[in-house]
Design goal:
The structure is a single chain. By secondary structure, the chain is an alpha/beta fold. 34% of the residues lie in helices and 14% in strands. The protein has 5 helices and 7 strands, in the order E-H-E-H-E-E-H-E-E-H-E-H. The protein has a 7-stranded parallel β-sheet with strand order 3-2-1-6-4-7-5, sandwiched between helices. Helix 1 runs parallel beside helix 2 and helix 1 runs parallel beside helix 5. The relative contact order is 0.18. InterPro entries: Alpha/beta_knot_MTases (IPR029028), rRNA_Methyltransferase (IPR051259), SpoU_MeTrfase (IPR001537), tRNA_m1G_MTases_N (IPR029026).
């Protein structure tokens, strides 16, 4: 006869972990990640890359669900994690000087540029016909208004490797769920902070990547740049010390 016992333990305060000396100035904002395996992979990647903190918006899967714990492989205890982040309290975790980047791997840059070119041509034709009727002041951009998923093309889209991340004092990388994608809150945050959408170029007609995979590619590029800068600094310091003798 076999008996199975279920243990009970107190949930540790994962939001109290102190930053480590090798932590990057990187915050990963999980926007509505509902698949447990994906969230666990994101946490594992975040711990491996050495990010400063992970934020979970309301709507994310339970941080302590068995599948998240299993795929996280102990990363819960190596990270500072804040749950239930909302448009009302996000400012507690994201500073005013933070640069916002949206991991938007579902968009092809060439297709978007072609679409924008076509739309701008049609807009210019329309404006030329009605230039005497339109007041240009009516079309000034108001960044106090929320930006929706329907008009997110007002946020610049660039390849993930084209950014100099080391020039940013604080980086916020937003990753959305595979099904729901990024929320209006994330788009609005990036828009108001003059953020950018990051694209991972894909081949062989592959439309998108798993959220954890996309995060890993971008996050480790950020780490690579900081390590490279650190190595250059050490070499310059060594040379300057050598010349002083």
């Amino acid at each position: 006869m076999y008996f199975m016992f279920s243990g009970i333990m107190k949930i540790p305060p994962v939001d109290k972990k102190m930053p480590g000396p090798e932590d990057l100035p990187l915050t990963i904002l999980c926007d509505n990640i509902r698949e447990p395996g994906n969230l666990g992979t994101i946490l594992r990647t975040a711990a491996a890359v050495g990010c400063h903190q992970v934020l979970l918006t309301k709507g994310c899967v339970d941080l302590w669900s068995p599948k998240v714990l299993r795929s996280g492989a102990g990363s819960h205890f190596r990270l500072r994690i804040h749950k239930d982040v909302t448009p009302e309290n996000y400012y507690k975790y994201i500073g005013e000087d933070s640069s916002i980047f949206l991991a938007d791997n579902n968009v092809d840059i060439e297709q978007e540029e072609e679409s924008l070119d076509n739309s701008s041509e049609s807009d210019s034709d329309s404006e030329s016909e009605n230039e005497n009727k339109i007041d240009s002041s009516e079309h000034d951009i108001d960044k106090s208004e929320p930006v929706s998923q329907m008009n997110y093309d007002c946020i610049s889209l660039v390849p993930y490797y084209s950014i100099n991340y080391t020039s940013q004092s604080s980086i916020v990388l937003v990753i959305g769920g595979e099904t729901e994608g990024l929320s209006n809150f994330s788009y609005s945050l990036a828009y108001k902070r003059s953020g950018m959408r990051l694209n991972v170029p894909l081949s062989n007609n592959v439309n998108s990547l798993n959220t954890g995979t996309a995060l890993g590619i971008i996050a480790f590029e950020i780490k690579r740049q900081f390590l490279s800068k650190q190595q250059i600094y050490k070499q310059d310091l060594k040379q300057s010390v050598g010349h002083s003798f």
